[in-house]
Amino acid sequence: MSTLYFKRLRKEIQLYQKDNFMLPNLILKPTDNLGIWHAVIYDLKDTEYEGGVYLMKIMVPEKYPLSPPDFNFLTPSGRFDINRKLCTSFSGYHKDLYSASWNISAMCCGLISFMTDNFDHSESKGIGGISSTPEYKKQIAKESRNYIKNNKVIFDIFEKYFKEYYEILEFNEKLNNYTK
Hints:
39% of the residues lie in helices and 14% in strands. It is α+β, with helices and mostly antiparallel strands and 180 residues long.
């Protein structure tokens, strides 16, 4: 891995640490292996995803920031397949469209925008995208909290956030069971 890779990721981590890795609708968390990050998307008010909590994995390549990361949703959303790399203009599928000026949080915000757009035609899906009804997305949003309550990654990586922000994410019961 290059010096540029480490320098850029350290700079991004310092930037996100200022806000405790919390951004609007997003919590970012790098792992000890800087090539793997996780994100929790939540609080998508006034959308079909309102009330939902979604876990995402970000795979940062060794050539970052000159090469784009890949994104996988680890929880159902009604918009993206789980455990499948997503095709976006800022992912590994489109290296020619990617710009090294984008950082991880900007790409995640773009993904949230892509997720919540109301277009449901083949051009807006891309690889890893799925088509579903607004009613199905709302159902998945309601079920997402139960889905991730038992997800070990959530509590291993985001335990600190769940303790501090459990009222936002409404995990009182699971949090109490987990910390006993």
